[in-house]
Write a structure and sequence with these properties.
377 residues, alpha/beta, Aminopeptidase, Alpha-Beta Plaits
């Protein structure tokens, strides 16, 4: 097993579940232990270490490889350290089966952490340390919940010419991804005894019409528009529904949450207005609110930027790719750092019971990063 694979095994064995998904005080919660472990690895390679507060008790790890001379440009490697919860404790015990390494976070995104940290440490310990390019590893917290880590980094005084955000992209360099907005819709009716439903107004029934309209006509409307060249069409999904208290009471309220995946150029206000107008034309009434306060914007970084062109050439990739899920890249890009997404593994394995990563993909990612970073002056 390679050094990068061994490092990934060690990272998997240190639980770093996002505290948002666990009870207070759970021993598996938080990124501090894995940040401390990665900091020791980085310090041994000669990187300068600091911690940046993102939330109370939760910090981003910042490890810098300073150039031989004065820095004229900066490249940021930015995977996240948190994971979703494990289904059982066995997921924190890394297990190898042929080319696959199983464990919570294997691909999302401790695989990227291992590849990026290994590549940077290898560069630091070699004779190819860049002369004028600073390279920073930023292990970010809270990506799986509210992205407090990347939001704190974007608001800091850290500047970079390119951020490579670690996510399982199948080793594709991604320059565009969708954003998402979560809406809450509420319908209101009149409660009545279940034996006399004609005396009430059924809020669940009213919401059922809205759900059907969103999932059929509104979804079809989105598919009729011109697709984005890398991202295809915007999409919509009704993810949750809650209404009523018991069968013999006409429900007087019902709530759904809606996930609307956005394309570059779409805004929260514009999408809200569009959906409200759509329901209005259907003569369907509901009150709107945001189910999430922090914006999750779409991202599109110009592929013609010199550093991105260099990265594409070094990876042997003719053109950039797009992806459907949201990540920290959009936040860093909004903060003024041109960003791409790249990493080993397949998003299809993320958050699954048997999460795994291909070890060949892990090694290939490390090699690709070393080659690109070594090419910097």
């Amino acid at each position: 097993m390679s050094d990068t694979a061994k490092l990934l095994c060690e990272l998997i064995a240190i639980p770093s579940v996002n505290p948002a998904f666990l009870p207070p005080g759970d021993a598996r919660a938080g990124e501090q232990r894995v940040a401390d472990f990665a900091a020791v690895i980085a310090a041994r390679a000669g990187l300068d270490i600091e911690f940046e507060k993102a939330l109370p008790g939760r910090v981003n790890l910042i490890a810098r490889l300073r150039p031989k001379l004065r820095a004229t440009k900066t490249i940021l490697l930015a995977p996240h350290l948190d994971t979703v919860p494990a289904v059982n404790e066995k997921q924190f015990l890394p297990r190898k089966d042929g080319d696959r390494l199983f464990g919570r976070g294997a691909c999302d995104t401790k695989g990227s952490v291992a590849a990026m940290l290994s590549a940077l440490c290898a560069l630091a310990e070699s004779k190819q340390r860049p002369r004028e390019t600073e390279i920073i590893f930023a292990g970010l917290v809270d990506e799986e919940s509210a992205q407090a880590g990347s939001r704190a980094l974007a608001k800091s005084n850290l500047k970079a010419d390119l951020a490579i955000v670690g996510e399982p992209t199948g080793l594709q360099i991604v320059t565009a991804h969708k954003g998402n907005i979560w809406f809450q819709l509420d319908t209101h009716g009149q409660a009545a005894h279940g034996s006399r439903p004609e005396l009430g107004r059924n809020a669940v029934h009213a919401m059922a019409r809205i759900v059907d309209a969103i999932e059929t006509d509104y979804a079809a409307l989105l598919r009729q528009r011109r697709p984005h060249p890398l991202l295809g069409h915007a999409t919509v999904n009704v993810g949750t529904i809650r209404g009523g208290t018991q069968p013999n009471i006409v429900p007087d309220s019902c709530t759904i949450t809606v996930d609307r995946r956005t394309l570059p150029g779409e805004t929260e206000a514009g999408v809200k207005r569009e959906l409200e107008n759509f329901l209005g034309r259907q003569k369907l009434e509901a009150t709107f609110s945001l189910a999430r306060t922090e914006p999750c914007l779409p991202m599109e970084t110009p592929a013609k930027l010199p550093l991105i062109q260099q990265f594409l050439r070094s990876a042997g990739q003719r053109k950039p790719a797009g992806m459907h899920f949201f990540c920290d890249a959009a936040i860093l890009a909004e903060g003024g750092i041109p960003s791409v997404v790249f990493g080993p593994g397949d998003i299809a394995q993320a958050h699954t019971v048997d999460e795994w990563i291909s070890l060949r993909s892990l090694e290939r990612a490390t090699e690709m990063l070393v080659r690109f970073l070594s090419s910097q002056s």
